[in-house]
Each structure stands twice: as C-alpha cells, then as structure tokens.
Amino acid sequence: MAPTFKFAAMSRRAAITAAALMATAAIAGCSQKSGGAAEGDMALGAAAGAKVTVVEYASVTCSHCAAWNKEVWPEFKAKYVDNNKVRFVFREFPTPPQDIAAAGFMLARCAGDDKYFDVVHAIMESQQEWMNGVPPRQSLNRIAQGAGLSQAQIETCLNDKEGVAALEKRIRAGIDAGVTGTPAFYVNDQKVVDSSLAGLSAAVDAALAK
Predict the structure, then answer these.
(1) Does the pTM of the predicted model rise above 0.90?
(2) What digits encode the pLDDT tens for the residues 170-192?
(3) Does residue 129 lie in a domain region?
(4) Contact assessment for residue 154 and residue 141, using Cβ atoms and an 8 Å cutoff
(5) Which residues are CB-neighbours of 92 under 8 A, at least 6 positions away?
(6) Residue 118 CB-half CA count within 13 A
(7) What CATH number should be reported for the domain holding residue 51?
(8) C-alpha span between 57 and 183 (Å, rounded)
(9) Please, are residues 34 and 191 in contact by the beta-carbon 8 Å criterion?
(10) Residue 2 domain-assigned?
(11) How far lies 4's CA from each of 7, 16, 110, 120, in Å?
C-alpha cells in the first residue's frame, strides 16, 4: 500500500480559514450574486455567457453533496450539460472536516483542469470508505496518485501558498454570496431549494424558455 501523505500545514491553514468563515456565514453580507462568473470557476457544458448558468456550491466532505452527485448528477448532466444547453459551474465550499475538504480541492486542481471533476467525484465517492474505517487522508492519497500525481507532487500541491490563498478567496466569495451550506444551487442567480432532478429541471426549463 502506498504511504499516505503527511498532512501539510498549508492545507490546515485553508481549513482554519474555511471554519472561521463558515462560523460567520449566517451574518455575512449577501450583496454579491451567485450566478455570474467568478475567479477560479470550474465549468462544464456551454461556454461562458450561456443563456442559462447553473451554479453548485459543494464540498467533497459533504454527504448530501455526495448523494446528489451519485443520484442526480448523471441524469442532470445528460439532460443539460452534455448537450451544452446550460453552463454548469462548480464552486468549492469546504465543510467539516475542513482540512480534508481543503486538501481534496487543492489536489483536484493540481491534477489539472481535465481531471478536476474526476478527482472531485472520486473523493465524494470515497466517503463510503471513510464510513468503513478507511482514513480520509489515505483515500485522498490514492485518488491523487490515480490522477497521476507523485508523492512529491502531492506534498508540493498541499504546500502551495498561492493555491491556499486562491482557495481562501473562493471561500470568502461564497460567503459573500450568501452561501451558508452545501449543496447550494443557483439558476441564473436564483437559488433553487429543491435540488432534485425535477426541481432543478423546472427552474432550468423556465430559464431556457425565456
């Protein structure tokens, strides 16, 4: 078995930032919109400027996010993303344990844009392993190596000051947008409470019909 990585201080710093900001989320200002383009967005489907943009704020350590990713995402993707009907934007919003979430997001970005979503989805799927006693850090290490990162690259990634600063900035942007939990969905800036396929489809179809 490959050795698990030593958990970097920089990823812990990002976790501390996430925890501190989450603690104040309930009283954060909501002046910013959620659907417009933001620095660091990871997107699939239609190009920027599409008629309909769906934004998901999620965490790789959020069980509800993992459930949505497993149960709803495949059909939603086939219905709207693969055919470029909508632009789907994924935004990182680390939830407890924040150190694992922060590390997971950093590793996903270090794996490269072409592997980002694969890594994020794999980490969400690995939550089942954690429930069965596998240390989350071991799962992250396995997934990162499977995405082509060497042990040295993993350590470099988790100690990247610029990467941590960028993640902190994305967390702050989510708080400023009024996000208080995950998963959170917005269709053209309008929050959609019903995240089922039917609920999201109703909002997306209405936006497409305008």
Answers:
(1) no
(2) 999 999 999 989 999 999 999 99
(3) yes
(4) yes
(5) 40, 57, 58, 59, 101, 105, 167, 170, 171, 174
(6) 12
(7) 3.40.30.10
(8) 6
(9) yes
(10) no
(11) 9, 22, 17, 18
Q: Is 172 helix (H, G, I), strand (E, B) or coil?
A: helix
Task: Tell me the three state secondary structure of residue 28.
Answer: coil
> What DSSP string runs through 43-66?
EEESPTT-S-EEEEEE-TT-HHHH
Tokens 């509800």, located at residue: 64
Find out whether 88 and 43 touch, Cβ atoms under 8 Å: yes
Contacts of 43 (CB under 8 A, 6+ apart): 87, 88, 89, 90
One-character DSSP codes across 49-110: T-S-EEEEEE-TT-HHHHHHHHHTHHHHIIIIITTTSSEEEEEE---SSHHHHHHHHHHHHH
pLDDT tens sequence across 106-145: 999 999 999 999 999 999 999 999 999 999 999 999 999 9
Residue 85 CA to residue 66 CA, distance in Å, equals 24
Report helix, strand or coil for 166. Answer: helix
Structural domains counted in the chain? 1
Asked if residue 46 lies in contact with residue 86, where contact means CB atoms within 8 angstroms, the answer is: yes
Domain-embedded: residue 31: no
- Sequence-separated (6 or more) residues with CB below 8 Å from residue 73: none
How wide is the angle at C-alpha 49 spanned by C-alphas 74 and 85, nearest 5°?
Answer: 35
In a domain, 180, yes or no: yes
